[in-house]
Amino acid sequence: MIETFFNIDIIVAAWPIVMAGLLNTVLLSLIVVPLGLLGGLMLALLAGIRHPLVRWPLMAWVDFFRAFPPLVLLILLFAGLPFAGLELGGFACVAIAFFLNTGAYYGEIFRAGIDSIPAGQVEAARSTGLSRLQAMGYIVLPQAVRNVLPDLLSNTLEVVKLTSLGSVVAVPELLYQARQAQSLTYNPTPIVVAALIYFLLLWPLVRLLSRLENRALAGRH
Amino acid sequence: MTTPLPIVDARGVHKHFGALHVLKGVDLTVAERELVFVIGPSGSGKSTLLRCLNRLEEPSSGSIVVDGIDMLDPRTDINHARQRIGMVFQSFNLYPHMTALGNVTLALRKVAGKSRAEAERLGLAALERVGLADRAGHTPGQLSGGQQQRVAIARSIALEPRVMLFDEPTSALDPELVGSVLEVMRALRESGMTMVVVSHEMGFARNAADRVVFMDDGLIVEQGPPAAIFESPAQERTRAFIGQIQRH
Ligand SMILES: Nc1ncnc2c1ncn2[C@@H]1O[C@H](COP(=O)(O)OP(=O)(O)OP(=O)(O)O)[C@@H](O)[C@H]1O
Ligand SMILES: [Mg+2]
Asked: Which residue, A12, A89, B104, B183, shows the most beta carbons closer than 10 Å to its own?
């Protein structure tokens, strides 16, 4: 049993391949998460503009990318863009597709956080001469981010998991590399190793999330 | 002798919220060092009027000049102008993630451009004036309602405004905490601050107001010295309102 699922020789042989995959998974996450956070913040700030010419397109954008399955979006970009004369490659397609998807999610989270801050605080800030942007930066956002930290973290977890879909378009991330190693060695051990790595990568975040959620619950009493 | 320019000079102020006509041509002038006390039934437009004075609310028409600044001129730097107009709200509206001192120094640093050290010196002085220098490091959550409102007053006076607007500053307070806030307001008045106060504290009005303004249905119905308005109002609507609140 152990020989089959956790074969030491195979671990040693597959290690460089799997590590190369881990590197790409981390790299993808380090691109998609910050970009998604930034894009989401922009969407949330734009949502403060009530003008219909901003409001409707914004709503359509966010709804579209939240409703569209990220895997479908990825394959659409990967298979479709070359026909439009754009050869971006799998890595870029993964980054763009998941940025669009998760940016919309981060945007909704930030928006909820911003909405949770009483308008009176902004009015007080404005009455002392702070600009709209200063009130946002010094008063609203620090509290808003704190209020939605668990949701931001939870979405970040999802993004990291999402990167494993990159294997579908042959991006050599962790899962794809593990499957390569598996087909080379005719043994499932590399997949088990990849699963363990995903777990070790995400488990600290999950723990942190639990603590934040408990703190938020306690704070409500 | 030329009469000095009023600090607040609002003329023909109208405000519509959609179909709702809330201010119907209000004229209000407030002289330097004057305390004007505004009363009127709920929904008569008192808060809206105050909020138009510092343009938290955009008037539909009319003119508003504060300390010589045309508040409705699009060329006016509104953020600069607002430093001269302090505002105190019913619900305090402190920033809960900052200390009392942080609340008071934010605009000093980011609007008035003071250094951190200078802002803290001025901020502490402002907290001292409301009797809360020893609470500078407390967050709003660690302060009583009365203390929070005094910090809110300090936040405004730290900017050395030319006029202070109070919108029901004691209405959200437990009765036993009202006195401490009124005391600070009285001291502020004695220091020569020009003030416009919307409130139900009739005792304060009698003692401290130079003029009482009665509003009803978006208009100033009647105004005059406190004694005249409270004892012998000329208008039937004023009489009815005064009678009503005195029964409470
Ligand atoms: N932002 C707004 N949008 C729509 N209607 C508003 C808005 N603000 C105020 N109003 C309406 O304008 C009218 C006057 O409100 P305002 O708050 O100025 O009255 P008030 O005299 O301060 O009353 P109160 O004593 O209850 O505080 C009310 O009918 C109110 O519902
Ligand atoms: Mg009001």
From this structure: B104
